[in-house]
Amino acid sequence: MPYQPWTQGYSPYATPAPVSGVAIASLVLGLLCCLPGVGLVLGVIALVQIRRTGKRGTAMAVTGTVLSSLGLAVWLLMLASGGLSAFWGGFEEGLNDDGTSLSVAKGECFDTPDGSLEGDTYDVDKVPCAQKHDAEVFAVFKLTGFGSDYPGDRAVTSVADDKCYAKRDGYAMDTWAVPADVDVYYLTPSPDSWDAGDREVTCVFGSTTEGKSLTGTLRNDETVLDDDQLAYLKAAGVLNAALDSAPEDAYVEDDLPGNKAWAKRVADAIGTQRTMLGGHEWPTAAKKPVATIVTNLSAAQKEWAAAARASDADAFYVHFDKGARLIDGRKTVTVRKALGLATTPPAGDADGGDGGTGDGGGSGGGDTGLDV
């Protein structure tokens, strides 16, 4: 019998069918839950493709389809309940949490990680103002007028310093109620956070005594004051602002024109304060002490106006001394007591606030010694 030809028989090492790439993609997306809708669609496509071509990956396609279905259900639930917005907001905050300003608002209090309000910080712990805290926020504002490039530490801190001190009295209107060791601090953008779009400055009160905490809020503005207290403090603030605008030179002799212009501002402010006090209907206990203040203000305005017309430094000093004594802040203690305001003049002010000059009437101009 002739030999039979060799034929190719079954080989146990035959090449297996390829795995569906679509099934792999469906499984990956199902595990990550980042695009559950896409993972679900890919899973269905993979199952149809496997049935038609004989490729492997059925288990992966089924698993990806199930996981994507669960992920899609979770996303729809979060969207319906508003949780998705909160999640995305937290995600964006996490991306931007690289030296940007802290998420604290006006009126809130917080502790810093090391208890210091100096140097760099990236996080704070909000705490109730009623308990001990490192700082209290009294203003938050955006820096404007700068380009996209960081303008430098000096330019940023200069604006922050000016605006924070200017906003201080609007939050703590009764300056007598602010402890002597409390001062203004501020958090500004860093070069890195500036590049990320940060332009926010946070102004806070903090203790100048190392390691000392604050307790209780320092806020006393229209949100907590009654109408009579607010009227008095607004009137006092007009004069204090004028007194605080004194020339930088310590002596009148060094800048007589500047001091005369300052005396004119004070005289005008006294007139405004007198009108504000006289035009308000005060409670019975405060009527007489307010009337006394108004009388002193009338006499003081004449002296400051005369100082503004002085021909030389000696004449300026004569009227300045008389005018300063007439607006001595200690003369306001009685009316403050009647209105329920702080009655202890700020420490370090020889003549108190609310118009007290604090320099003993000897220097003229320069530092008025006000703690406004």
TrEMBL record:
Residues 23-77 form the DUF4190 domain. Residues 107-212 form the Septum formation-related domain. It comes from the Bacteria. Residues 353-372 have a biased composition (Gly residues). It holds the Pfam family Septum_form. Keywords: Membrane, Transmembrane, Transmembrane helix. Residues 342-372 are annotated as: Disordered. InterPro entries: DUF4190, Septum_form. The chain crosses the membrane at residues 20-48, 60-88. This is DUF4190 domain-containing protein. It comes from Streptomyces mangrovisoli. The lineage of its organism: Bacteria, Bacillati, Actinomycetota, Actinomycetes, Kitasatosporales.
